[in-house]
TrEMBL record:
<keyword id="KW-0808">Transferase</keyword>
<dbReference type="InterPro" id="IPR004165">
    <property type="entry name" value="CoA_trans_fam_I"/>
</dbReference>
<dbReference type="InterPro" id="IPR037171">
    <property type="entry name" value="NagB/RpiA_transferase-like"/>
</dbReference>
<protein>
    <submittedName>
        <fullName>CoA-transferase</fullName>
    </submittedName>
</protein>
<dbReference type="Pfam" id="PF01144">
    <property type="entry name" value="CoA_trans"/>
</dbReference>
<dbReference type="GO" id="GO:0008410">
    <property type="term" value="F:CoA-transferase activity"/>
</dbReference>
Amino acid sequence: MSLVKPNRPRFTDVEGLAAMVGQGDSFGVGGHHFARLPIALLRAIARSGIKDLRYVCWAGGLPLELLLEADAVAEIDLCFSSLDIFGLPPRFRAAAETRAIPVRDWTALAMIQALRAAQQNLPSMPFQLPQGSDMLARVPTASAAPDPIAGTATGFIPPLRLDTFVVHAQRADESGNVQIIGPRALDFAMAGAARQVLVTVEEIVPVGALRHDGRQSILTRNQVSAVALAPGGAYPASCLPFYVTDYQRLSAAFATRETPLVDNLCLPSEGVPEPVQKAAEVRAETVLAMPALAHGETKASVDEIIAARIAAELDNESFASAGAVSPLANVAYRLAKATHAPDMIIATMSCGHLDIAPSPMILSLIESLDCETAVAHAGGDDTYSTYYQAGAVTHEIVGAAQVDRRGRVNTIALRKPSGGIIRLPGQGGMADVANMHRDYLLYIPRHSVQSLVDEVEIVSSARGLLTSAEREPMGYRTGKALVFTDLCVFRLDRTSRELTVIETMPGVTHQQIRDATGFAVTFDAGCRQISRPSNDTLAVLRNRIDPLGLRRLEFVSAKERGALIAEILAADRTMVERCIAAQQDIARS
């Protein structure tokens, strides 16, 4: 399959792009989470009647849900699938749990290197093995072999070629060069691995106009097959600086099962709603200058105690990355940077936003504020080779569905007593980076015998390299390995390689921990009680860092989640309206 494209792409409309997708194509989607998703094009593809697509992407999420609803997908290759704050994608779960569609779980690094092999026209690419996990056996066509020069055990992966890659971007010029502003996800690697690249854009501008914009990435016209003008083409996902994610619209779409997603996600006849356009104009300095909210001096909740305790692990030398969907990690990082660790580096959007300011976590504004305050923007493939594989990231605090006595994690699937499975989101990039971070930090929001088990069925990630003797030859620094729960803090002991309780939550007894744990619990001789956060710390956390209480989403049951999301969205709407009004006042003054 030739990846060489014409020097000048074809200009068409969205339906014209959809008609270029072939039956049975290996099909990739650009964007990241709810950012720059090609929703208009995906809707057109879903309506086209196309079948038997092999969906290949780091993430499933909303794009995959649209295509599954249309019965357009025959196979799925991914690392992770989530609807962010809205939880697990129901169609993906149903397909995986019934085994109606084959699902292949990749490690992020294996997928990146497979795309790079296709992009660079190589027969294979090496990658660091996900030591301690079961993931190598789950990655299609991956194998381990001695490196031909050093003799070190190394992973190898053949090219992952795509027939079609679809992506939404901010602008194209009249010759077909495409501009991407902000994090690039895996867009460049996927475009390089694809036979055809189909792009929707917000604007088409004259040749030469793109060179005047700062902090951008360009897919040059010879990398692009066809372009369609589609203002609002990512809505209700975001496309900065034009509009933010419309969480209200997404919530309504996910809650309504009677109307198909393909109809629920359509762009309103009047275009992108004005509030989400105005929200994209709000600047970080405006938000930071606004008075903090005041929630009162109530007793610290469990989620606040854990957030403050994790924040205490960070200092001015920390480089902390927030992964796929982790409000608690974001809160802890921002709290540390806003209090005792102002010089630490925070990277969000899976390292796409580098060195952000600790702005408030207002749901609709998180992406735009991080995008504005970031020192640099990057792609997921870039950040692996530049930061993760180099061992530069000190912390990435990751939530886990299930952890065993040896600190091994399962985020792939759980077996029901009936014999069926409960599909989980997947490991994302954790199988790779669990060994690359200096400090290995996990959290289990609800400590139970189901979440803390003797042995996980699937080891999706683990600290396989634990001691200095194991880590230093690989170029990785040695740090702590901790698991935080709502009852205690475990340390992964380097000698026994098993979890030991080193701290307990206030008021929690040793017996409570024993009763709630699925393995025999060992308590460290110096085990102590976690200190409650100070009033000053709580004030910063509640009133400045997480005024909506997004951290709570990780500590409620599935039944409680809907009501909490409704509460958060109502508070988010009020805060965004305040921010828009303040920004307009500044513009008038």
